[in-house]
From TrEMBL, chain A:
Organism encoding this protein: Gandjariella thermophila
Cleaved signal peptide residues: none
UniProt cross-references to InterPro entries, sorted A to Z: DUF485
Keyword Nucleotidyltransferase attached: no
Transmembrane listed as a keyword: yes
Transmembrane segments annotated in the record for this chain: 35-53, 73-94
Name this polypeptide is given: Clumping factor B
Keywords linked to the UniProt accession: Membrane, Transmembrane, Transmembrane helix
From TrEMBL, chain B:
Keyword ATP-binding: no
Organism (species): Gandjariella thermophila
Name of this protein: Cation acetate symporter
MF (Gene Ontology): acetate transmembrane transporter activity; symporter activity
Cross-referenced Gene3D superfamilies: Sodium/glucose cotransporter (1.20.1730.10)
One Pfam family matching this protein: SSF
Major subcellular location class: membrane
Membrane topology, record value: Multi-pass membrane protein
GO terms classed as biological process: plasma membrane acetate transport
Family: Belongs to the sodium:solute symporter (SSF) (TC 2.A.21) family.
Spans traversing the lipid bilayer: 12-31, 57-78, 84-105, 126-144, 164-182, 194-212, 253-275, 287-306, 339-369, 390-408, 414-435, 447-468, 498-516
Location of the protein in the cell: Cell membrane
């Protein structure tokens, strides 16, 4: 994997355009975007909710749940948890749904089958 | 306790000894790494031969700067929950890098951020703009680290006069230049890895130690923090102490939070690390490792921050030289005496050294690869030995500028300088990166509007913000917390410009694109998109 000769010849613009308009590539793009875009929107909104609560709802965030553990602390730790979970989901998704297709198209281009 | 109260920092000789050992060991590693540094790909991208986990740990090393380690622990110790807010923004930000940037950037670029931004644009103007914003972000970040070094010296080596501190800043600068010159990216990466492992290990031991003192019960630890916080009491458990004062400070916090979460994926020294691995898949693994390591570290700082409030006390911390920044070292001293303090001090120094080296190699790569090879020589020197020679000279110049800047910035607020670097990265870099990767219509004019607009609006808003002038005089110190004393020309109410400059930059990128009617960049979009998503003809690892 790490020992590869520099690529000899890169394809012309026509090849790239042809690949880009293929159904297989369109599928890859759709798979990436349908995961990455909504997920980005979701975690940014979730983060923004947290920021606004921390900023404007001090009383709520100071509510104690057990001992000295406050709502704010739990909310903060949930941001950590959601970050770890989203990371795990993306890796799972990319390994199964993105990499095989990307690999196939890459091989086709680099071996000059297009 | 009397020694703690004075904050004399234990045994300076021991602190210096442990730090010198770190420098000696890392220099040996850097020399070994230099043997296989021959080409530009070696110097800038470590031959693209690091594995994902190695690079992920190195990214953590780059990211967990002194501001993170000392700054966040100190902010939690002094301001309670509000200090924790920083770390959440710093962590969540990595999802932007993971989902939208890291892999696509690795597939389309070669050495620098500008490689991606200029891929389908007119080379000279876009590379120049990207290099300027790279240098600006790196320089602000560099200043923050060097200014931090001065404060740290006061605390840890008991060097209190400005001349002595200047000498130490110069020594840090010289060692850093040596790392970069000798080891290039490969050597610098190993320094980051060694430092990150030491930092995480040290923080983990201290975290368990603190929790152990409270029967592994975090709630009991918080009890201790509340008891030592005097009149503030249980307010340390919830947000509001630092940012909840007025409506302006609340809005300022929103602005900061946005800059933090969008800044990371635009930091040039973080982006450049994605080129040190052989493939996009390894770039993804790098980010995953970085998220896990950085996340764990921030959880540790939560315990360490409240731990230093409980075991050292906020009042003692505020009075120590270096103020809030001294919380973690003082906690180390309270736990393990001078030996643990020595270790933590050395790690803090190593942190500054490693981050500064990472920034320097990024800035020098941007100047040599983007400005010299592609703008001045029009691509003729691309990848040649001349380009690496220019990069090495640039590293020396940047190193010297960092030393001088660091001496002048000594005593400036570190967190502010870092927040500024994030704001510039989020405004000048991120919108352009996202547009050029995902928006077919985006063109040269849009890129220039967005980069220069983001950079310029950021800097102007900061110059006319309360950070530079016009904050009311603090009764305790008799000085205004603003950078300049005795003048007031501020009209922008917030400390952080992100709330205005980031949306503005997105808007300018859009308007600039639409107005220009330049469709040339669309012709290369198929190539860019196919490369980005599939990795076809991406730069391969160097064979040695």
């Amino acid at each position: 994997m790490s020992i590869t000769e520099p690529t000899t010849r890169t394809p012309s613009g026509g090849v790239w355009a042809e690949v880009q308009s293929s159904a297989e590539f369109a599928g890859l793009r759709r798979r990436l975007r349908t995961f990455a875009f909504p997920m980005t929107a979701a975690f940014l909104l979730w983060y923004l909710l947290y920021v606004l609560l921390a900023d404007y709802a001090h009383g709520f965030m100071a509510t104690r749940l057990a001992g000295n553990i406050t709502v704010g602390l739990v909310f903060g730790l949930l941001q950590f948890a959601s970050t770890f979970v989203i990371t795990g989901c993306y890796v799972w998704y990319a390994n199964r749904r993105l990499d095989p297709v990307a690999e196939r198209i890459r091989a086709e281009i680099e071996e000059g089958r297009r | 306790m009397s020694v703690l109260a004075q904050g004399t920092g234990g045994n300076p000789a021991l602190n210096i000894g442990i730090f010198a050992a770190f420098v000696a060991i890392t220099l040996v590693i850097v020399f070994r790494a230099s043997r296989s540094t021959r080409s530009a790909a070696d110097y800038y991208a470590a031959g693209r031969a690091f594995t994902g986990p190695q690079n992920g740990i190195a990214i953590s090393g780059d990211y967990l700067s002194a501001a993170s380690f000392l700054g966040i622990a100190g902010a939690i110790a002094v301001n309670g929950y509000d200090g924790f807010l920083y770390s959440i923004g710093f962590l969540v930000a990595w999802l932007v890098a993971l989902l939208l940037v890291a892999e696509l950037l690795r597939n389309t670029g070669k050495y620098t951020m500008a490689d991606v931004l200029s891929f389908r644009m007119r080379q000279r103007p876009v590379r120049t703009a990207a290099a300027i914003s790279t240098l600006a972000v790196s320089f602000f970040y560099l200043l923050a680290q060097m200014a931090g070094a001065g404060g740290l010296v006061a605390l840890l080596l008991n060097v209190k006069d400005k001349t002595g501190q200047a000498v130490v800043i110069a020594v840090v600068g010289v060692v850093m230049i040596a790392y970069v010159l000798i080891g290039g990216m490969r050597g610098t990466t190993w320094v980051q890895i060694v430092k990150a492992v030491l930092l995480i290990a040290g923080a983990a031991v201290m975290t368990l130690w603190v929790l152990g003192k409270y029967g592994m019960n975090f709630s009991h630890l918080l009890d201790g923090a509340i008891r030592r916080s005097g009149s503030v009491g249980d307010k340390v458990l919830a947000p509001g102490l630092q940012y909840g004062k007025t409506e302006t400070t609340k809005l300022d916090f929103v602005s900061l939070a946005i800059a933090l979460v969008l800044g990371t994926a635009g930091l040039p020294h973080v982006l450049m690390r994605f080129y040190t691995v052989p493939s996009a898949r390894e770039a993804r693994r790098s980010v995953v490792w970085a998220i896990v390591v950085i996340g764990l570290f921030y959880l540790f700082t939560l315990v360490l921050g409240y731990g230093s409030a409980a075991l050292v006390g906020p009042d003692t911390i505020k009075k120590a030289p270096g103020a809030a920044n001294s919380a973690a070292p003082l906690l180390a001293q309270a736990l393990g005496g001078t030996l643990l303090l020595g270790f933590v001090s050395a790690v803090a120094f190593a942190t500054i050294l490693a981050v500064v080296a990472g920034l320097t190699i990024t800035a020098s790569a941007s100047f040599a690869h983007d400005v010299y090879a592609n703008v001045i020589r029009g691509g003729a020197a691309d990848d040649k030995a001349a380009e690496v020679r220019v990069a090495r000279w640039t590293a020396v110049v940047i190193g010297i500028l960092a030393i001088i800047g660091g001496i002048f910035a000594n005593g400036q607020n570190i967190a502010f300088l870092v927040a500024l670097a994030f704001a510039v990265a989020a405004s000048a870099n991120l919108p352009t990166i996202l547009y050029s990767l995902f928006w077919k219509r985006f063109n040269t004019s849009g890129a220039l509007w967005s980069i220069y607009g983001g950079l310029f609006s950021c800097v102007v808003l900061i110059v006319f913000s309360p950070v530079v002038s016009g904050k009311p005089i603090d009764r305790a110190t008799g000085k205004s917390p603003s950078m300049l004393q005795g003048v007031d020309f501020h009209w922008f109410p917030l400390d952080n410009p992100g709330l205005v400059s980031i949306p503005l930059s997105f808007l300018l990128g859009f308007v600039g694109t639409v107005l220009a009617r330049d469709r040339a960049a669309e012709e290369k979009y198929p190539e860019m998109e196919v490369r980005a998503l599939t990795g076809a003809h991406a730069e391969k690892a160097v064979a040695h």
